[in-house]
Amino acid sequence: xxxxxxxxxxxxxxxxxxxxxxxxxxxxxxxxxxxxxxxxxxxxxxxxxxxxxxxxxxxxxxxxxxxxxxxxxxxxxxxxxxxxxxxxxxxxxxxxxxxxxxxxxxxxxxxxxxxxxxxxxxxxxxxxxxxxxxxxxxxxxxxxxxxxxxxxxxxxxxxxxxxxxxxxxxxxxxxxxxxxxxxxxx
Length: 186
What we know:
By secondary structure, the chain is an all-alpha fold.
């Protein structure tokens, strides 16, 4: 039986959720950038770079690099997610993963052997999965339950927007680069 003090004690109201101004558009931008890298670099620039480096073995080299880099991607996503969970903060992981990916993209663009392309793409997969794990966790962390459908829709829009922009930018880059121009994937 409850004591009278327990019955008469009012329950404190739930704290108002912190308003996240601009968070939903930033989720769209963050996921679009992620997909632009994966689709633009992975679908256009990487095969073109491999075709320029190893024209006779381009299919085998691309398959080997893709397979090994998939292992990096698979391993780094849960590791990065666990680390960002333990730290309790997502922004440093997003910023760090994004900047590290940018540096690795610069490295990938400057190498000219299949081994270094493979190492560069594996590093990009690892750093982009650090970025992706933290960005993905924002929806359950910061978005109120009533807005999660909208947030998920914006996250999903990142694929067609980022994929399209990434492929267009990568294709134009191939056309402007004198080394890659004319070495299409044939």
